Amino acid sequence: MGAWGIHERSLYKYVPQSGDGTNQFAGKLFQAIEENANLSLTAEDFNWAVTLKPKIAMDVSVFVTSTTLKNVCVEETIDALEEAVDALSIQGDVMETTSYPTVASEPRETLVTQQMSLRKKDFTNTIRLKLFVGTYNVNGKSPTTSLSDWLSCDDEPPDMYAIGFQELYLSKEAYVFMDTPKEEEWLRTVLRGIHPKAKYRKVKLIRLVGIMLIVLVQERFAAYIRGVSVETVGTGFLGKMGNKGGVGVRFELHSTSVCIVNCHLAAQIKKCERRNQDYHDICTRMSFPPAKTIKDHDLVFWFGDLNYRLTGIEGLAAKNLLDTANYKDLIMFDQLREQQRIKRAFYGYQEGILNFQPTYKYDTGTDNWDSSEKNRAPAWTDRILWKADDVDQIVYRSHPSLRISDHKPVSSLFEIPIAAIDIVKYKKIYEEVMKHLDRLENDYLPQIAVSRTEIDFGTVRFLENKSNFLTISNTGQVPLQYKFINKLREENYSKPWLIIEPHTGFLMPGDYTEIQLEIYVDKRTAGKLSTGQDTLQDILVLHLEGGKDLFISVIGSYEPSCFGSSIGALVRLPQPIRDYSAEEVLILEKRHYHGEVDDWHENNRKSILAVPKEMWFLLDELTKQGTEKENLFELPGLGAEISVIRDILDTSMPDNLPGSIHSVGEALLVFLDALPEPVIPVRMYAEAMEASSTYLDVKKVVARLPGLHRRVFHHLVAFLRELLVHSLKNKLEARSLAAIFGSVLLRDGLHHHKITTAAYYQSEEKKKADFLLHFLTAPHWDWIE
Question: pTM for the complete prediction?
């Protein structure tokens, strides 16, 4: 089904109709938002609401306080008012926030939504609004001058702003802890620099370390914004460090859905493949409730420091072309355009003509190209792209007069189409749709055909996704809604290692769709597969609204890997894990899981290894090649190289490991993060967190670790301390290493960071870092028992 139909439900919540108490309330409510946007309101201003429902005791002060609406964030105002609608529960027509006024059931509601989406053009009028998009990598600097030359350079004010920053803060510690004091100072500078001819409200501000996105809208449009939500995706080490990644805001304006993404992709001219990987990671992992992705929107704007460079041309030759403003010939060497052409990244996105000087790299405070020792070639690293129909780009430009950073800011002014509902037309078509569905439901039953009912994925490996496809066809005479549903006593419609996209959909008679099923075993699922607590087998229930259920069998064979296996099992496998049968490994894992194998004792040192040999090979390679390497454990590796490293460790006893030293470093962290039982066991997590403030207490915790785990901990601490001996050359800091490794050595086993508060998450991460930091900074003679 079309993207518009997926996210239109909230549009139909409030449909004013004469004589209907519910809709009188909704109409007055939103009329009040519009007409009183600039006024100071009190509870008395909403006394009219009580007259609509006299039998309910209402405290209308929940709607507003003495604070003026213009000082309230838009989505907070709307959310409060929608909660008030729910609370009223007006007699007669009950209007829930997720229901149509006259629809009794959710399946019928979904069908109506889809039918209405097909006729959207018949009941909407298109209005054209101006959107200003700006991006600026500020290189960790504080604002020292006005931003008006960038943000209010046009004669007339835009209707909306989407303003993105990168490198707001460059502290290595902030990459993990996400804190920065600069958010507020840059926000204040933005609000002082926007166009003075209009009044704006903040729709949302979202930040991931130094990547910040601010969305503003003119006050006159604030009442028409719904469904605001945000998401962040870190693409640094382990997919969570925030030095690189993206932030997104999505919302509906009238009946048009908008998604805005600001990102900072991997740096360095040779890291083009890593930039592509960052892009795909953001596409895959950025999801807005309920289950909306970036592509599921009418208008998408993606911008930021994409970091694509010029290749195939020397820096001097590039500067010579720039001296004559020969941008057309220079753009032929642009990595981004080439990656789009070969469909490796940003395929389907549009960009305007680059008719301005490259925005990187300058000597800070000047308009001179980089004169440092590295003498970087110029590049258009800062870009603005979009994916949508009927969007007009009015201007695309840089702003060289701002010299705060080694980048120049970029902006683009767009004219975008927004679909506004015509209430009279909507009511008429809504009635037609309801009558049509009534007739179809009385005459026909939905029918569906699937291409197969058993899907075999074959051999599946750790961190290696495998996909299959299932075709669903509507062979009946009526539109139908399908979805995969939960089985009895199960929380999800599929096991956690299986991804189904889309898991629900809508088909007109004669239509068909392809469903992608993807198996991906990661740290969350490998442990249970390795220990026999789970298998790659599942039965999916494909539910047809108003029809029968179909059952789809999914099977696969998980090939054990040292990644995802336990410390106790690995130290008892002297040969590579693939030299053993899956059954042998499973038996050993089960025995270890149930406590049936001996731990580390003096009398059995010959029968088991001191530490997993795979960890030793990784540490050995890092010691030989990485002790003096800058940015170790700060620049991420390549997924393809990490997969090769995994296969070599699973199949051989290597003298050297392939790939970049950054890929070897990330492989070590992935290995530790995937241990079913972390180095500090889950049962000791709370004790470790409580002890993290003092060295004496954390030493006591480590002394009580199981013998094998204590041995692994000591090996890792010795390696990290060795890295710090070379800190003058590798630029590593004890605090940043403690933060990175603390997050994988200490885990609570719940994987619930998304549902905890940001403050709680930050507090836990700092305690983990503090726990390990004691051992990295203790005197040499004192850190080992």
Answer: 0.74
